[in-house]
Amino acid sequence: MNSRRAFVVWGVAVLAYVLAVMQRSSLGVSGVDAQDRFAVTAAVLSTLAVVQIAVYAGLQIPVGIALDRVGPRKLVLLGALLLTVGQAVVALSPTIGPAIVGRVLVGAGDAMTFISVMRLLPMWFSGSLLPQISQWTGNLGQIGQIASAFPFALLLHTVGWDAAFGVAAIASAVGLVLAVVFVRAGPVAVRTDTIPVPHSWRAAFGTFGHALRRPGTQLGFWSHYVTQSSGTVFSLLWGVPMLRGLGYSATEAASFLTVIVVVGFVAGPVLGLLCARFPMRRSNLVLGIVTALGVVWTAVLLWPGQPPTWLLVLLVVAMGVGGPGSLIGFDFARSFNPVGSLGSANGVVNVGGFLAAFVMMFAIGSLLDVLASASGTSTFAWQNFRVAMTVQYVVVGFGVVMLLLARRRTRARLHAEDGIRVGPLWVALVARLRNGRVQ
Description:
This protein has 18 helices and no strands. By secondary structure, the chain is mostly helical. It is globular. Mean pLDDT is 85; it is low at 189-193.
């Protein structure tokens, strides 16, 4: 545990995740180019992204079950292979149909990568280092978003669609070779409440049911749902068109996406330390992040005329915190599940943010078309985005209600099984003032 070899395995696995994020987010910086190349409406363009995210979300539970059955290494390798083939298909697509097939393969490969890497972590790391490594995994993965925002975007606008997506495919092929050489499963930590790692597919489905029924897994799902979805919608599809509608250049719009990543690098380790220090208050961190996102989005959408740049920077800063904030969901899964069902639990959690994201992506695209048709304006005009982006309040608001219900069930079970009672935050703060301690 926590050895030099552990860091080598982790480093190569993180590289595989970086490349997966680059392939995932490559459509976000090429949305306008895709509309021109394929001559499609905003609704059809959103389908290109929605299908990818729907496949990603839909495969999380099957992949989680497979993780508990075959282990993370095989799925990391298969994911890299699918990403390579998928981007190659997109590169060569003359029409929208083959491009959708390519993005389906990208979504499938992406689906196998992150939760497989997360499944590796408790095999190689332990103690207070584990939640911090989990945060660093998510943060470093977002380097892939920077790669898509600048090197990939530069290639796209200089050498064209075919070459840019072709280079992206080659990058995943290199990652596949490195993963074959270096990525290995490690020793499974022993826990007193563990259920055995399943040795048949029937047993693997049993572990999935075990994970799904745990309130802590459900709490992780809704935590991921409410924190990640807004930033995913912005980064993967509608952020750049929205910013272009506000008059920013392609390079300036890409810079906003980079701010999200940079903020994640700063916020992630801080959130990791807070989760390790105050494990009973992780849901309060989640609710604080969602509140901040709601406040800033409201200010942007209600601002008279065009919102100022400083307010848009504040928006992407809030979304940058939401990314590592979503990883708290995996910390819930790890805390409330035995090792034998952790792959399934991670799969359930990872569905959350992407489920919310693809619902919002499609709804926003459909609204943009309706609003543009009704007003006779450009599809990507700011006045259309101002209305379409309100979809987030409905989707995320529902998630907050479900999170509060899941938190109540989790705390009740924690009290029944371990005798731990988690009181309201204000009670804990008063207790800290009295004796210098807070749970």
